[in-house]
Design brief:
The complex is a heterodimer of chains A (about 110) and B (about 110). Chain A is mainly beta. Chain A has strands at about 5, 10-15, 20-25, 30-35, 45-50, 55, 65, 75-80, 85-95, 105, 110. The chains are: A mainly beta (about 110), B mainly beta (about 110).
């Protein structure tokens, strides 16, 4: 089955620790995205990548980092510099990163203890 | 900057009835895409319908249809014959030439028996 997978589903982090959220897609999409969702709010773009080995900051990139070494994978690291990381994180992909629709993974819920 | 506004935080509708969700957006671009996404309690983001700005015909997907008024920058979603499974948060989203999705704050739809 083609789709987007995210792992883990739930993640707990102690303050001061870096954590990495996984996102994999087998849709052969060029573009991938990371969003953050806070309670009662819409999605905000953290980072996006339109091709392998290239990525751009979104609206709220501070305290986050990404890599895009493979077309299928776009991991997100939440660093200790992110002051309020508790949120729901969604990964998405689209065919060419221009104007097509984005398809979403099931999300990761990150909680800082 | 592009903005997307959803002015209805919550809407309640009875089964089999019709509900209309409003969305307005602001952009200086002439060619863009608009979307409605649904996020049920599982939190999976699901594409409901898409509209290309250069197409005058309103998009329709089964019980879901849009009223796209380009001059007014309005993009409302009509859900006909509402079902319990339609209970979800609905997000309006816009993407322009840069390919990034801009989301509204969402409208919670509650379908009651």
């Amino acid at each position: 089955d083609g789709g987007i997978t995210q792992s883990p589903k739930y993640l707990f982090r102690k303050e001061g620790q870096n954590v990495t959220l996984s996102c994999e897609q087998n849709l052969n999409h060029d573009a991938m995205y990371w969003y953050r969702q806070d309670p009662g709010q819409g999605l905000r773009l953290i980072y996006y990548s339109q091709i392998v080995n290239d990525f751009q900051k979104g609206d709220i990139a501070e305290g986050y980092s990404v890599s895009r070494e493979k077309k299928e994978s776009f991991p997100l690291t939440v660093t200790s510099a992110q002051k309020n990381p508790t949120a729901f994180y969604l990964c998405a992909s689209s065919i060419d990163g221009r104007k097509g629709e984005q398809f979403f993974g099931p999300g990761t819920r990150l909680t800082v203890l | 900057a592009q903005t997307v506004t959803q002015s209805q935080p919550e809407m309640s509708v009875q089964e089999a009835e019709t509900v209309t969700l409003s969305c307005t957006y602001d952009t200086s671009e002439s060619n863009y895409y608009l979307f409605w996404y649904k996020q049920p309690p599982s939190r999976q983001m699901i594409l409901v319908i898409r509209q290309e700005a250069y197409k005058q015909q309103n998009a329709t997907e089964n019980r879901f249809s849009v009223n796209f008024q380009k001059a007014a920058k309005s993009f409302s979603l009509k859900i006909s014959d509402s079902q319990l499974g339609d209970t979800a948060m609905y997000f309006c989203a816009f993407t322009g030439s840069w390919g990034k999705l801009q989301f509204g704050a969402g409208t919670q739809v509650v379908v009651t028996p």
